[in-house]
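For reproducibility, we list the full input for the adenosine-5'-diphosphate complex.
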Amino acid sequence: MADMNDARAALKHYFGYDGFRPGQEPLIAAILAGRDALGVMPTGAGKSICYQIPSVLLGGITVVVSPLVSLMADQVAALEDNGIHAVYVNSTQSLDEQSAALAEAASGRCDAVYVAPERLGTQQFTNFAARTRIALLAIDEAHCVSQWGQDFRPAYLGIGDFIAALPYRPVVAAFTATATERVRHDIIDLVGLRNPQVSVTGFDRPNLYFDVIKAVPSVKRQWIERYVTARPDESGIIYCATRKETEALADDLRDRGIAAACYHAGLPAEERSQAQRDFVNDEVHVVVATNAFGMGIDKSNVRYVVHHNMPDSIEAYYQEAGRAGRDGEPARCTLLWSDGDINTRRRFIDRENDNERLSDDEAEVIRNRRRVLLDVMIGYCRTTDCLHRYITSYFGETDAGPCSGCSNCDGEFETIDVTRIAVAVSRCLHDIRELLGTDRDGRPGCLGAGKITQMLRGSDAQEMHDWRHLDSADSYGALEDVPAARIRDVISQMASDGYLRIRDGKYPLVDYGERAAETARTDFHMVIKQVERPVSGGGPAS
Ligand code: ADP
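The corresponding predicted structure, in tokenized form, follows.
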């Protein structure tokens, strides 16, 4: 049986490399030992080698399942250049070519055969599989099996059946760049990985400095103007949530004499590609854009990415912010946010029911998933922990190194003890349940964050007195001395932390979360970040 010494020799022989990267070793060792594997690494980190090396060492062929038919010819050609014998079978070939490729794969001479997931279910391929010794089934872009992601591809769900129908079970190894914990579980469950070696590595981008600033819209704008003005020679991208904001901010910058390009999907194609070209060729240094900008743009010297609004998920944020510093040199990723951003994002999600193919229930499930993703994003804005670690642990990487730079670890914030407020909110929810009873669906009565805040502040609004005796609750007026905005912040943080849960419906209602009981404990303690700190745009770049 081949071992890691053989693997290192093969790495040198076929690829000319002297050593494995951190995540590769445990995955290859597991596969060689006959154990399933799940490799989660960002693009470019070196997933392919994790199945290509075993393909030459295991006795039998490796079937590589890949969704990208258009890349297969190139992938196979690259392997052949390195002396690894591989073929592909896909719809770009004539039927004769397909048969010839399969015959070659069955001949025993081949190390690997690349196919799309749809092919696994065809008679032609199951015949091949029944008479060929498949040593390893490698699944590329394995997140496509999960409906949690944007890339769901139904044919991936057939992989499990394909494995089950084989005369004996090969080692199964799945690879992806975008696996959050939910997606990882889906991959393990739906593909049917058995006790896999899971390796998550390479998500940290140590050369990026992460910075989070809470600011109202006018301050955001001033900050950006100052920041960009202070860096006339650096390339940067400024992401805005809407086309309108993109245009307004680009105009603002131009008024200040900064050549800024504007990019969003509503502009004519020619204008867009001009903006892209100008940016890539350093004709303009700054692009103000919506999230439509960036796909397929290869510019390594982007020194900063500023978000003018909170994105709707950490995935989206990291993808956009990650366009900074591709050259490995220091770069800064600043996220500016306001409470208004949260409301806007929530409204976007609520309104998103225009997908006619979905039933009401399915649409609601999807909206709820998006709400969960948004809560994690809000958590990033409010967390007092290291921002690098917040991101890497979200992607499931638990043993990334120490922080290489972020505004939290630099201690640029203060915390406020909000234990008393959190406890009062929790008690208020209890009072509301008592006063409201259950609703028509049997769920405990709840109110929105606005009403809860009014109650706690002892508001004199007529409905406090007239409706359900809200003013008779013990918690009524319990936080008379606390500003409403602070109570709202705490409610929001409690939802991010799991003490509360925002219940969906026409209006978001505040209910107890899975950690609610902790707020009743005597040792319960909660702090929030003092987010309004003085902002200066001209500070150190990176
Ligand atoms: P992924 O599939 O994760 O996107 P690839 O497998 O295409 O990444 O690898 C990205 C690049 O890194 C390739 O050029 C590959 O040859 C190189 N590479 C992979 N592993 C190593 C290694 N151990 N040492 C040096 N280079 C490597």
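The pocket of adenosine-5'-diphosphate is lined by residues 15, 17, 20-21, 24, 41, 43-49 (CB under 6 Å). Residues 537-542 have pLDDT under 50 and may be disordered. Both points were considered when choosing residues for closer inspection.
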